[in-house]
Amino acid sequence: MTSVQVDKNHDSNEAAGKAPEEGYQRGLGNRQIQMIAIGGAIGTGLFLGAGKAISKAGPSIILAYAIVGLVIFLIMRALGELLMYRPVSGSFSEYGREFLGPFIGFVTGWTYWLFWVVTGITEVTAAATYVQYWNEGIPQWVSALVFTVALFGINLISVKIFGELEFWFSMVKVTAIIGMILIGIGVITLGFSKAGDTASFTLLWSHGGFFPKGIGGTLMTLQIVMFAFLAVELVGVTAGEATDPKKVLPKAINTVPWRIGLFYIGALIIILSVVSWTVFKPGVSPFVAAFQQIGLPAGAGIVNFVVLTAALSSANSGMYSTGRMLRDLALNGQGPKFFTKLSKNGLPTRGTGISVGLMLFGVYINYQWPGDAFNYVVSFATISGMWAWIVILLSQLRYRAKANRGELPQSEFKAPGAPYTSIFALAFIAMVIVMMGIDPDTRISLYAAPLWALIMAVGYLAIKRRDSAQLTPVEPAAKG
């Protein structure tokens, strides 16, 4: 399929406000997509990363999660408006291409692909280290290889199997958090366990106040909190394979507030009421610290299993999304045509296979040279994930403007308060990026962005030249 053909199909679909026929099997039902949406908001950023945020901000980290949670909901509602306009698997890459120009769509697709490749590398490697908690004799590379091959095999069977696996991965995480909340409430109200004598909601303000590190300390944790929500937008990539996208996706998106309220804010309120914020340290899971304080001997093992599940869930999601993004790019003439072909089960196995190969190579690099060079690449994943959010918001603003002028059909799932809420979310993301530049721990993410932008510009120019050469008419040979 040439880029000219894609443009013609794209124009007709844009006018009709319909999704193009992509060839995927719609095997993701309401149950799977609901849990994929829940799982996307619960990851290692909560189970491990929250410890660093708590140590920097104290109890006020609860407020930080609430504010960022609101912004995430605004982003998801903006995405929902676009999804109801045209539910496609290319999602924000496709919307960026339509409303912001082909170059933005090109950058978004390749950047999101890279984000998940790098994330897959780190998550599989992390999962391998978690295995050593139970058996240090198992080499890390062996576990990483087994996990990668197993997840790849699952992604080769059918999208329904992928959705079922994500359902149970998410169920483990949800059950663990709800269990921790219930145990914590019991400790606070009934006073059982060795933490019962000190557990109290007054711990939220009794050790230096609610803002022990000042407002500035809380603001500097916003980027950590934003990172915890990366991948929540993955539900948009499922649009092309949802059984009934216009019914299922709005339900999944509208559950974002209570998911954040329960699994993040609710869990942190209970944990910080059981254990003083002064106990938490960077690199230590707040769940592990809470279980240790309560005195549950199996607590650390339980949390380790849950974190292992979270890492495998993220890697599984990465394999799923990379194949879809590469195929979307190929269908639009912005990637190798090799990736357009689907398997007999309707799966983009070529794109997934290439991505998994890079993940395996990355695991090897991480094993051989676990130094700063690799960490620099990993840090870039954070800014690339936020780029997808920016494109979603900008695309929604352009779409809403066109729809209001009658140039496009109105969405059945309008973002509340738009365009003002989308502008607010964009301003908030801009503020967080500025803070990333101030914080030396996250500044490296911004250094990599200009280099990647240069690579994208060169790649896009090469594609434009290729397309121009294909469209240039050949002069007929002179006679005689």
UniProtKB/TrEMBL annotation:
- Annotated stretches, region: Disordered: 1-24
Could you list the residue ranges that cross the membrane?
35-54, 60-79, 99-121, 141-162, 174-195, 215-239, 260-280, 300-320, 347-367, 373-397, 418-438, 444-463
Against InterPro entries, the record matches this protein to: AA-permease/SLC12A_dom, Amino_acid_permease_CS
Stretches assigned to the Amino acid permease/ SLC12A domain = 33-470
User: How is the protein disposed in the membrane?
Assistant: Multi-pass membrane protein
Q: Name one GO biological process term.
A: transmembrane transport
Report the subcellular localization. Cell membrane
The biased composition feature labelled Basic and acidic residues covers 7-24
* Cross-referenced Pfam families: AA_permease
**GO CC terms:** plasma membrane
Keywords of the record: Amino-acid transport, Cell membrane, Membrane, Transmembrane, Transmembrane helix, Transport
Mainly resides where?
membrane
- Does the keyword field hold Transmembrane? yes
What PROSITE patterns would the database entry show? AMINO_ACID_PERMEASE_1
Indicate yes or no for the key word Oxidoreductase.
no
Its family remark reads: Belongs to the amino acid-polyamine-organocation (APC) superfamily. Amino acid transporter (AAT) (TC 2.A.3.1) family.
The name of this protein is Proline-specific permease
